[in-house]
Amino acid sequence: MVTAKSRYSNRRPPESQRCFSSPRVEELIREICGFLPNRELAWLFENCFPNTLDTTVFFDPDEPDSFIITGDILAMWLRDSSAQIWPYLPLVPEDPILDRLFQGAIHRQVQCLLLDPYANAFYQEARESPWHTDRTEMKPGIHERKWELDNLAYFLRLSHGYWQLTGSSAPFGDRWVQVVRLGCQVIVEQMSATRSEYYHFQRLTDTPNETLPLAGMGNPVRPCGLVASAFRPSDDACIFPYLIPSNAMLVVSLRNVGVMTEKLGFMDLAQECRQLAQTIDTGIREWGVGEHHDGAVFFYEVDGYGSRLFMDDANIPSLLSLPYLGYVHGDDPVYQNTRSLLWSEANPYFFKNEHYEGIGSPHTGLGYIWPMSLMMQAMTSDSDEEIRRALRILIATHAGTGFMHESFHRDTPEDFTRSWFGWANSLFGELILHLYRRRPDILQSV
């Protein structure tokens, strides 16, 4: 017999088996769980919010060094690792061990980018990847070498976020500066007409979105101030390489790091970051915005020749997430029109039935909704009912596991992908924190 008590029993590892423990995180869990009247929502938060710390962190406090796996894949993505720990950032000033975790994550990402700024996922130690036969410049220590522009943007975002909050320059030594300069170099390379000289990728596969056409170059683009990305945040190949959400995230990250590097005394680097941000922003406004369904929208991908793709993918950066990333205000009319179309049949990856709705991804196929899209919908919404509906769907679709998943089928939520996905769990925790601080009334009413 399943009782209410057993149904909502703690799903975290025993304390002795947890990878990392933060006193301030534990205190906050108790505080919020005590506030939430919905027992199932409190249970989900209790399980999900600390999941990254409980299960994915390999931490050496002496270095410091923080290697953070994505969950069921034993490799560290720059994007995922940054997003997984982002919700804990506000707690850093109150918890010295959490501060060391963030310094260690920045140090580890510097190490990864120095190994290869074009790679997306890395191992803790130098070893051969199962993808070592990919036709690209693989090195020991690299798990996968898919050029994804958002990975670089996430590194810059994490660095600036930590610096802005703490004022500490501890993680930002010569090697960090070297990596920021290297990142600017890569951006310039992928803005140029000769971008294929710097990066190419092919994989022997029967899945087209796992490889690039034209001998690994990807589809052609015309230089227009935007930065080409071979792959999306989903790890799927771009159709048109100018991926607008990733370019938008990069604009914000470059501007912020421009302020940061100026304060740190690197005036030339600050100027370069600002100039690149302005060039990319101009490119977005000229090529990434246009008429669609009787109104102006942001497009998902463009090529600089006039070809444009309207869709969205739940992975962040996405078009839905532009206010969350700081690129536009939530009331921006172009964003609002884009948003309404994304949450409709105008987006081929929007799925809905009488009970559930949300945005998916080509990565998991038709009919699969990503909980991250519902979390992002709620975090970028001013509608009480829209936020409540997103929360209700999230509560109803965890399939009894107590955790968030990569995706679930709109008709059968028990059919889900990835039972251990740190990013989705962290983002759910971030959503509850966001509402707790800004709209506690909504959490009280669910």
Question: What's the short story on this structure?
Answer:
This protein is mainly alpha-helical and 446 residues long. It has two domains: 27-58 and 349-446, no CATH class; 61-347, Glycosyltransferase (Alpha/alpha barrel). It has 17 helices and 15 strands.
Structure description:
With 446 residues, the protein is mainly α. It folds into 2 domains: 27-58 and 349-446, no CATH class; 61-347, Alpha/alpha barrel (Glycosyltransferase), CATH 1.50.10. Helices cover 44% and strands 9% of the residues. It has 17 helices and 15 strands. The protein has helices at residues 4-7, 23-35, 39-48, 51-55, 78-85, 96-115, 149-166, 174-189, 213-216, 244-263, 267-287, 322-325, 333-342, 371-379, 384-396, 422-438, 440-445; strands at residues 57-60, 65-68, 76-77, 121-122, 142-144, 242-243, 289-291, 296-298, 301-302, 308-309, 350-352, 357-359, 368-369, 407-409, 416-417. The strands form 6 sheets. The protein has a 3-stranded antiparallel beta sheet with strand order 3-4-5. A 3-stranded antiparallel beta sheet has the order 6-9-10. Strand 7 (289-291) and strand 8 (296-298) form a beta hairpin. The model has no long low-confidence stretch (mean pLDDT 97).
